[in-house]
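User: Show me an example of a complex going from sequences to structure tokens.

Assistant: Sure. Here are the input components:
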Amino acid sequence: MLRLVEVIGKRLLLGFVTLFIVSLLIFSAISLLPGDFAQAVLGQSATEETLAAFRSGLGLDKPLFSRYFDWITGVMRGDFGSSFSGRNSSGFDLSRPVLEIMAPKLRNTVFLALVTAAVAVPLALVLGLLTALFRNSIFDRGANGLTLTTISAPEFFLAYILIIAFGGFLPTIANVKPDMGVLERLRLISLPTITLTLVIVAHMMRMTRAAIINLLASPYIEMARLSGASQTEIIFRHALPNAWAPIATVIAFNLAYLVVGVVVVEVVFTYEGIGKLMVDSVGSRDIPVVQACALIFAATYILLNLLADLVGILTNPRLLHPR
Amino acid sequence: MSEAPNQSSLLLDMKNISIEGFSDERWHPIINNVDLTLHRGEVLGLIGESGAGKSTLGKAAMGYTQPGCRFTGGDVLFDGLELSRMNVRDLRSIWGTRISYVAQSAAASFNPAHRLLDQTIRASKRLGERSEQVLKNDAIDLFRRLNLPEPETIGNRYPHQVSGGQLQRVMTAMAMSPRPDLIIFDEPTTALDVTTQVEVLSSIRDLVAQFNTAAIYITHDLAVVAQMADRIKVLRFGEEVEQAETRTMLSAPEEDYTKSLWSVRSLEKPEQAGDDVLLSIANIDAAYGSSKVLHDVSINLPRGRTVAVVGESGSGKSTTARVITGLLPQLSGSVTFEGEQLPPKLRDRSKDQLRRIQMIYQMADTAMNPRQTVGDIIGRPLEFYLGLRGRDQERRVIELLEMIELDASFYDRLPDELSGGQKQRICIARALAAKPDIIICDEVTSALDQIVQEGILNLLQRLQDEFGIAYLFITHDIATVRAISDEIVVMWQGKVVEQGMKNEILSPPHPDYSELLLSSVPEMDPDWLDTLLAQRAAEGSKTIKAQD
């Protein structure tokens, strides 16, 4: 048990180190973006003095290193700075803290991701197990063909097909409002959920199937069969417990995608998520928001991979019960 | 071991069994019209080389064929039930409860995710006759009868937490738990060291006798089957060669094929001393990471002679080879070749130093690139060490092929198209191509059938006589040692226990460990195991300590 805590602690620490390196990358990549924010906000007619004053107000005139230092120490205190937008040449500062802008969008994204995961992960597991159980049957071929088709089609294409097919009775615009109830929200995001489910199910299902089928060739499965185990018992009791590690990795990968990669779907359904926020902020050169989004994406990846590793450790008796 | 069987106790009656397997887009016969009968409480030994169909026939006794195989004829009558045409649902009520199976590799045949005790009683639990607690207590009792350490708690461990020999015994307990009428033992001790094998063999034999269980004991090791079986059936190419009571079979085999199987074990060569030391390693210490595996190892290899290094797995034999070849630089000590000290690291050695020490491995399969033809495989060292190209290279490859008793027609073949023995011959030719002074042979015959082994050993001996190559011959098989070596080094736990001329080492008195190792090597005498166990019991527990 103590070993387990040690392993988790080590992984967490490594996760933080990775996150730190990623923050460096994000910051330097963004500072390389072409264009000048002051110019973009104030327009071509702004004088040199107003531009300079504007820059110094935002700290943009400080050297790169000290800007990074200010930013990262802020982040560690939970302060992602304030958005650039809302400032103007008139001197009124209407800008809002990044967190305040991001929070509702992040909540939306996480909500959509959780709902999709709740549908897609069990569906993929069940389909994967069934296709492994009835390998090479018509059902197996059908399920594989169908999921491969949906993963091969571009997301926006799937989304529009769904809109055409179900637009009559399901909402095609997911314009959720903060004061809406959960049921109303669920109704609004039904089409985005279906779209995303279609996109991610194939990957997880095929990995589940492959992992199980791979194990079915092992001697201990033949042994189980020769001691009279039924096919269901073989899959659920003998193969599945040994297949979690690869399955968990793929699930983690797809969950991460649900948080960081759904911008196209958000745009099609005009859903106010964090992907859309990030793209908009890049357009308006709202650097603090872009950086915060990127950092959250990185943290999502790292955390989910950490969880997948943990599942791998917890389901591997060799690691859990050393000699 | 059991009283003479009579007709009324007939348990298994297999008639005209034929089985086919599907490969290369067509069905091939695996078993051809084989009959097999077994009485209650009787042990039948099934022997033959790999590919003879022993395992397939053994599983067929359960009405089971592996995926890709099918029954094409015959009946399997088990206690009045016809199994070969029974549907799987009904078979499941027999498998694991009335007929159980013990697989070759226990390490691979236990589910890594479940505790041993749960796996031991799983099939019996399905029967539903006894409560879980009763079954667990019974399993613990079986563990005790099988001489497993800590029988009360060993069942709570996971498969990776116990040794191979212990796992094999747990698997026997698992097979015995539902008190089946019949157990199929499929090479249960093949993967074990000889010292461990003795324990497992005697445990299995006692248990089978105690419960009057019938058994089919599959093995390629004649000496083992001699200890275990009442009756022996010899298979070859899926057909029965002959069958007889064990003692009759051992003393008077009828068929030539059986006689040839018997004769391999008697291969022996006179030892020759060598005074011209070619390679000498002195006081070698070596480690993998922080775990030290060699302690103060010193071995001399004379020119043109064979030194056999024997010991069980984990004794440091292969590590010694890795140090000599430079694959694992030693921590301390020296490797001297023709009076010149070799650099510890591979990349510090000159091409000529590399050329003169070659290696042959146990698994010829994995030691060759499956995408290269025989010509490429043997041609590579010719080009690398000797600079031979084009026509010259081709001519030399064909010469080498002839030296290893193959011919030019092999030049364009791929490893996949060769038999196990042919593959090993190609590996020998590859080593030979470099014109080495020393070839290190790491268990080169262990994966081969006995008759093929004989061919390889004779070939190696002939090459030594012709070219004066010295061999460092790593093996755990004492019969092989007799056949090839001049000198013997016995290793145990990373140390050299004993070193000397073959006859001196093989004849008593021995140090404790050599004694244990040598006495554990099964002999063809059917009374060998009884005699040995009686001897060890008389001597007390002193030698038993070194097991597990």
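The lines above are the inputs; the final block is the predicted structure for all two components together. The longest strand of chain B covers residues 10-23.
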